[in-house]
């Protein structure tokens, strides 16, 4: 009894800590470390920070060269996410370095990197670790002579109004971002072989990355839509990273500024930056697009217990429940493209699951007439969503000797022959013995 | 810290360009709307009296009329704070500051009580903040109650004890037992000293004021500078607190400086460019998102605008991008920092030069005309020699009233980068395929780069592709854009970018495919041609899809480089896969049922024939034993046989081999017994018959 009481006390006293920390049950980040070059950024970018605070994040602002910063203490991570708003930092203070940030992400934590024209090698290195490469030319900026934002003060067309956003409701919210997004900074490229990196905000086909002050002597290394202005990375462990080539795009000035794209007569009162970056931060901090699968069930049609093995050509039912984290609770995830594979070396059956719109996905199919050790596999990877990878092993056996078909009509002549023979034999014995 | 500070302005301001100083815009309506957003009272009041003061003071300076009404709730807090006996000098100071704006009705007796309390606090004060709050409060009471007889008894003594905290470099210490000197403290001390001077019953010794003025000069020696002409003070303390950045430090100094210069009689010879630089610093911050920073910025600017030493005037341009084609005028505004009107003055364009060649001026010494309606100075018309491009314009502000030259600081020269844009004429655009050896033209097409083009060409690796066009500025001279790219995009999305070079007016590029085959990865097929011409000063920058060229390149040798992998469309990468359904083994072919039944009938025919044959032969059972015992055995024998046969049927239907064999063994023994008996009976009967 005393032990029981002790457990209860322990659980209750731990509850507040459990509730606020990052966990699979509550995937949204809570504690965010923001590293700045200067505390003035806290004030000049306050709209972005305020939107985070109003959504319940605990932001901790530190100078990037503060000697007392660290991501973990006693092997425990102190933060769920890291925001690097320190493009010019050459060396972090404290125990933070490229390797520790990589470890931080490898353990499933999220990261926002904002670079700028004066981006240091350190920030470039962290970005490269994350899978994007900033233009190596340190003086280069993204220039767009046809897609620039009309401005009275920025005449060199480095202030870009970009509206080439990724079409993904999960990353950018279901509301369409109408106003172009203002961007002033450096471009990067994403490795085409890397399937985890996505361009969220791409430059227009006429843009290029070069030093606006000097004449071009060779073709720029980055041109056109291959230039990514903002990219996101979702690692295999569902850690999420945002890399932006501009710190000023997060600033109050850009949030509040009106925008008019060159060549277009529509003038928007407010740029799309606030909406774009708020929605993007919801995604990167796992307020959206985080899936979980529960209650994987399978059984023979008409039964309810899960068998330990199936026989070839059995009919079976498979069901799984999928929920999406909405920031506060788990909501049923509704889509029509969850697919199940019945897999042994390669999929034998690949079927789209039907949904009841309440999170339950189910299907039924006939087990193939091949025996061996199969797997039920749900590999759900969709743009912006965390990936679901469920697999359950199940053996499939062939027919037993007595499970084959009997009394085939084709064999009736043989049956007839045997039995007429037997009846004849009986009659013959009687006749043979007693006939005179 | 210094390094991060260097990045500070770059982050907040537009990127400063070349040697041109950034333009600082005075406070405008965007500040007013931001102020209303930042200072939002909760339930009719602000969190603290300090915050209330900051909000009210900001609203007052910015002249916001639609401010939230907090007076009823706040006046209650103010009178409570003033009448409470437990209020610290700081509480009193904050309450009085709020009261100075709100003008709440406070009893004269309440003030009496506070005055004595504060007087006692002044005489017992040891740290700078004690002095600051109590003297500040007394000053505020004096203003609010119009008590002319409110004096500090020992003003000079207090002055001396505050001065004792100063350091040799112009900075101050917070208290005598705190050795660390601080720039913020200097500002606080100056403000306090100003309070002491204004509260003094008699004139304070001029020499002491002179010493303090000397301190101010020394403090200004430690001022720091950004590249763009902004000056600021910064705390040199190692342990940087968040709210002691350059903004709060500079604003503290500005407050102290202006307060001191207002009361001190002697003239202070501060360099005007530093005052202007401070104003530029505060304006350069833009719109802070933090209410404290916002207040510091606005409050300091207000002090700078109303100070006695020198009022900075800010030269700003509504637009630095001027279109030559639209015949826009270059406009210049001169305002005070808070955006109010400047005294009569003239703006002169000292010189203007191209960013690429600093030595040759295009315009020199021109006076800008004044438009009294819009309160702007404008340049009537640019001379014809001025072409599109980026220029540095150097302005100078000259005050009409020479007496006020001491009051206003305008800075010596203001460098501004101006982009003169225009419509660039594109002509003689041609694309051609040339034969390699002779350079003869095989096919040639004219292009209209501003319009639509759909050229289809074909070439092999022995030919050349030649593209040329001309660019002319509105003034008729050659134009060299920053961006002139020719892009070839293969069907597989492999892209190649070439710079289009120029010779004079003519831009041309010749692609010799023989030398390019390796670069093109030996990829034959359709290449889309895209031409991009753009420049910051070109109003009609273009991105034109010219058409395509069908290239016939030789087969790739084995060691040729492979084209780089191209990005996969993310939408297709994540789409659902095609469904797979298992194809089951086809069941074995079987004869139709009818055939089986027919054959069953045929199989049964011999049996029926056998029965008919038996009947024909006339079988009988006359040999069946007549006596009861053999008859019983005979019946049992045949029942046994029938049972065995039935067992076979059961075996076929449902029994397994083991049950069948078991039963068969019993039946076999039984059959052997009864069979032996009946067969021996039959045998003996037949032998009897033979012998008999």
Number of domains as seen in the coordinates of chain B: 4
Largest sheet of chain A: 8 strands, mixed
**Number of strand segments of chain A:** 28
Total separate domains of chain A: 3
Q: Helicity range of the residues of chain A?
A: 10-25%
- The termini of chain A sit apart by 98 Å
Radius of gyration of chain A: 32 Å
Beta-strand content estimate of chain B? 15-25%
Describe this structure in words.
The complex is a heterodimer of chains A (436) and B (692). By secondary structure, chain A is an alpha+beta fold. Chain A folds into 3 domains: 23-284, Rossmann fold (3-Layer(aba) Sandwich), CATH 3.40.50; 290-401, Macroglobulin (MG2) domain (Immunoglobulin-like), CATH 2.60.40.1930; 405-434. Chain A is built from 9 helices and 28 strands. In chain A, the strands form 8 sheets. Chain A has an 8-stranded mixed β-sheet, sandwiched between helices. In chain A, strands 19, 21, 22, 25 and 26 form a 5-stranded antiparallel β-sheet that branches. In chain A, strands 20-28-27-23-24 form a 5-stranded mixed β-sheet, with no helix packed on it. In chain A, helix 3 (46-54) crosses helix 8. The radius of gyration of chain A is 32 Å and the shape is elongated. Mean pLDDT of chain B is 82; it is low at 1-20. In chain B, a hairpin with a 6-residue loop joins strand 8 (345-354) and strand 9. Chain B is built from 18 helices and 24 strands. Chain B is an alpha+beta fold and 692 residues long. In chain B, the strands form 6 sheets. In chain B, strands 10-11-7-5-13 form a 5-stranded mixed β-sheet. A 5-stranded mixed β-sheet of chain B has the order 6-14-12-8-9, with no helix packed on it. Chain B has a 5-stranded antiparallel β-sheet with strand order 16-15-18-22-21. Chain B has 4 domains: 2-9 and 29-309, Glycosyltransferase (Alpha/alpha barrel); 314-421, Immunoglobulin-like, CATH 2.60.40.1080; 427-564, Immunoglobulins (Immunoglobulin-like, Sandwich); 615-691. At the A-B interface, helix 2, helix 3, helix 7, strand 23 and strand 24 of A face helix 1, strand 14, strand 19, strand 20 and strand 23 of B.
């Amino acid at each position: 009894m005393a032990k029981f009481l002790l457990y209860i006390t322990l659980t209750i006293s731990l509850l507040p800590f459990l509730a606020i920390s990052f966990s699979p049950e509550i995937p949204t980040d809570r504690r965010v470390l923001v590293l700045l070059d200067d505390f003035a950024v806290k004030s000049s970018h306050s709209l972005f920070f305020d939107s985070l605070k109003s959504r319940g994040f605990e932001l901790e602002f530190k100078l990037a060269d503060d000697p007392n910063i660290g991501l973990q203490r006693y092997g425990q991570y102190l933060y769920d996410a890291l925001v690097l708003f320190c493009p010019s930092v050459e060396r972090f203070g404290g125990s933070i370095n490229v390797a520790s940030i990589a470890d931080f992400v490898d353990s499933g934590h999220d990261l926002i990197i904002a670079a700028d024209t004066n981006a240091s090698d350190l920030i470039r290195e962290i970005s490269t670790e994350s899978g994007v490469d900033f233009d190596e030319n340190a003086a280069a900026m993204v220039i767009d002579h046809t897609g620039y934002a009309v401005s009275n003060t920025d005449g060199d067309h480095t202030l870009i109004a970009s509206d080439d956003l990724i079409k993904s409701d999960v990353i950018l919210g279901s509301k369409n971002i109408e106003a172009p997004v203002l961007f002033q900074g450096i471009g990067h490229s994403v490795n085409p072989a890397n399937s985890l990196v996505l361009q969220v905000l791409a430059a227009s086909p006429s843009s290029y990355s070069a030093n606006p002050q000097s004449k071009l002597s060779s073709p720029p290394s980055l041109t056109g839509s291959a230039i990514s202005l903002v990219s996101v990375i979702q690692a295999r462990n569902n850690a999420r990273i945002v890399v932006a080539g501009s710190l000023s795009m997060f600033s109050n000035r850009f949030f509040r500024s009106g925008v008019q794209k060159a060549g277009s007569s529509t003038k928007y009162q407010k740029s799309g930056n606030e909406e774009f970056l708020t929605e993007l931060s919801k995604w990167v901090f796992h307020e959206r697009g985080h899936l979980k699968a529960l209650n994987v069930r399978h059984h023979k049609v008409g039964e309810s217990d899960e068998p330990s093995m199936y026989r070839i050509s059995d009919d079976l039912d498979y069901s799984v429940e999928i929920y999406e984290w909405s920031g506060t609770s788990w909501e049923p995830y509704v889509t029509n493209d969850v697919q199940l594979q019945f897999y042994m070396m390669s999929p034998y059956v690949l079927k789209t699951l039907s949904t009841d719109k309440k999170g339950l996905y189910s299907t039924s199919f006939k087990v193939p007439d091949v025996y061996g050790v199969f797997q039920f596999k749900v590999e759900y990877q969709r743009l912006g969503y965390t990936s679901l990878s469920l697999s359950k092993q199940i053996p499939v056996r062939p027919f037993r000797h007595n499970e084959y078909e009997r009394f085939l009509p084709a064999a009736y002549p043989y049956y007839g022959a045997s039995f007429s023979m037997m009846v004849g034999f009986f009659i013959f014995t009687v006749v043979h013995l007693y006939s005179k | 810290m210094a390094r991060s500070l260097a990045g500070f302005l770059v982050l907040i301001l537009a990127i400063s360009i070349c040697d041109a100083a950034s333009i600082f815009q005075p406070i405008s309506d965007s500040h007013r709307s931001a102020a209303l957003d930042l200072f939002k009272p909760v339930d009719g009041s602000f969190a603290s009296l300090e915050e209330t003061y900051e909000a009210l003071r900001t609203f007052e300076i910015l002249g916001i009329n639609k401010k939230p009404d907090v007076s009823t709730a706040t006046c209650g807090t103010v009178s409570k704070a003033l009448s409470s006996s437990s209020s610290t000098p700081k509480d009193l100071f904050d309450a009085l500051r709020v009261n100075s704006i709100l003008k709440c009705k406070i009893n004269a007796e309440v003030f009496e009580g506070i005055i004595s309390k504060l007087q006692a606090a002044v005489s017992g004060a040891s740290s700078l903040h004690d002095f600051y709050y109590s003297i500040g409060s007394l000053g505020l009471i004096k203003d609010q109650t119009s008590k002319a007889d409110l004096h500090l008894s020992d003003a000079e003594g207090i002055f001396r004890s505050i001065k004792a905290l100063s350091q040799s470099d112009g900075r101050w210490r917070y208290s005598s037992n705190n050795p660390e000197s601080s720039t913020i403290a200097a500002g606080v001390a100056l403000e306090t000293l100003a309070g002491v001077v204004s509260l003094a019953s008699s004139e304070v010794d001029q020499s002491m004021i002179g010493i303090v003025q000397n301190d101010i000069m020394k403090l200004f020696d430690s001022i720091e500078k950004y590249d763009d002409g902004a000056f600021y003070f910064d705390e040199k303390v190692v342990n940087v607190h968040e709210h002691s950045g350059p903004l709060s430090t500079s604003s503290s100094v500005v407050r102290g400086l202006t307060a001191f210069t207002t009361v001190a009689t002697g003239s202070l010879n501060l360099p005007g460019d530093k005052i202007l630089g401070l104003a530029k610093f505060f304006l350069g911050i833009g719109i802070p998102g933090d209410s404290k920073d916002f207040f510091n910025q606005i409050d300091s600017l207000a002090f700078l605008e109303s100070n006695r030493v020198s009022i900075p005037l800010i030269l700003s341009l509504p637009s630095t991008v001027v279109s030559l084609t639209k015949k826009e005028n270059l406009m210049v505004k001169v305002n005070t920092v808070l955006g109010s009107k400047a005294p009569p003055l003239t703006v002169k364009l000292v010189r203007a030069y191209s960013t690429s060649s600093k030595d040759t001026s295009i315009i020199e010494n021109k006076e800008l005309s004044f438009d009294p309606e819009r309160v702007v100075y404008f340049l009537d018309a640019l001379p014809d020699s001025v072409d599109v491009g980026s220029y540095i314009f150097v302005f100078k502000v000259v005050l009409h009233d020479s007496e006020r030259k001491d009051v206003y600081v305008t800075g010596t020269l203001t460098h501004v980068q101006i982009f003169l844009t225009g419509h660039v004429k594109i002509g003689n655009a041609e694309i051609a395929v040339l034969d390699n050896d002779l350079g003869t033209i095989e096919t040639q097409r004219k292009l209209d780069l501003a319009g639509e083009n759909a050229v289809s060409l074909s070439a092999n690796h022995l030919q050349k592709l030649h593209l040329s066009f001309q660019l002319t500025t509105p003034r008729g001279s050659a134009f060299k854009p920053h961006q002139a790219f020719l892009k070839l995009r293969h069907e597989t999305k492999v892209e190649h970018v070439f710079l289009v070079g120029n010779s004079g007016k003519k831009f041309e590029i010749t692609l010799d495919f023989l030398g390019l085959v390796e670069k093109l990865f030996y990829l034959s097929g359709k290449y889309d041609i895209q031409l991009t011409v753009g420049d910051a000063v070109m109003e009609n920058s273009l991105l034109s899809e010219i058409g395509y060229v069908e290239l016939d390149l030789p087969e790739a040798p084995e060691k040729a480089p492979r084209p780089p992998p191209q990005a996969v469309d993310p939408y297709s990468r994540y789409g659902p896969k095609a469904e797979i359904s298992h194809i089951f083994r086809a069941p074995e072919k079987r004869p139709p049922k009818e055939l089986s039944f027919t054959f069953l009938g045929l199989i049964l025919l011999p049996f029926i024939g056998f029965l008919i044959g038996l009947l024909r032969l006339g079988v009988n059972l006359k040999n069946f034993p007549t006596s009861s015992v053999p008859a019983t055995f005979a019946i049992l024998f045949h029942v046994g046989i029938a049972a065995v046969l039935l067992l076979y049927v059961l075996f076929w239907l449902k029994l397994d081999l083991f049950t069948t064999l078991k039963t068969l063994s019993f039946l076999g023994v039984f059959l052997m017994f009864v069979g032996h008996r009946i067969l021996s009976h039959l045998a003996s009967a037949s032998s009897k018959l033979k012998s008999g």
